[in-house]
Amino acid sequence: MDELTLSIGLGLAVSVLFSETFGIAAGGMIVPGYLALSLHQPLNLILTAAAALATFGIVRSLSMFMIVYGRRRTVLMIVVGFIVGGIATQLSPPNPMGETISVIGYIIPGLLAIWLERQGVIETFSAATAATILVRLLLILVGGVGYSA
């Protein structure tokens, strides 16, 4: 099984565990799995969190002028997250080692923004961080992913 598939599967299990045990979502069912694969790239994580916060702010601002609720709000969050993530990736300078800094995934900022609105900023980022670290540890234990001796 490849790293992405294993990471998404473990992320789904951890997300359900967090939801059922603590009553808090980790930013969407697939978010911890994707973030766990990029845990060694902190600038990408920071850019992704910033894109999620920007998406949250933009949609909240738009909701003052538009009727945005339910499915329409969910779709708008994901579309705005997609656009903000693309712009953030294009405008970000290379990191000190010359690598491109980019937002993780195409829909991750939008999914995070949905949960930022539903349960709050601190709760969502705390749960996403804890779930991501747990998924990364499980990846190391189960598949040897990311482990270098």
Model regions low in confidence, pLDDT < 50 over at least 5 residues: none
Sheet with most strands: none
The amount of beta strand, in percent, is under 5%
Number of strands: 0
Radius of gyration from CA coordinates: 16 Å
Overall form = globular
Compute the number of helices.
6
Describe the protein.
- The protein is mainly α and 149 residues long.
- It has one domain (3-143).
- It is 70% helix and 0% strand.
- The protein is built from 6 helices and no strands.
- The chain has helices at residues 3-22, 31-37, 42-62, 70-91, 108-119, 121-143.
- Helix 3 crosses helix 4 (70-91).
- It is globular and about 50 Å long.
- The two termini are 21 Å apart.
What's the layout of helices and strands?
Blueprint lengths: L2 H20 L8 H7 L4 H21 L7 H22 L16 H12 L1 H23 L6
Helix pairs in contact: 1-2, 1-6, 2-6, 3-4, 3-5, 4-5, 5-6
Which terms would index this structure?
mainly alpha; globular
Explain briefly what this protein structure is.
This protein has 149 residues and is mainly α. Helices cover 70% and strands 0% of the residues.
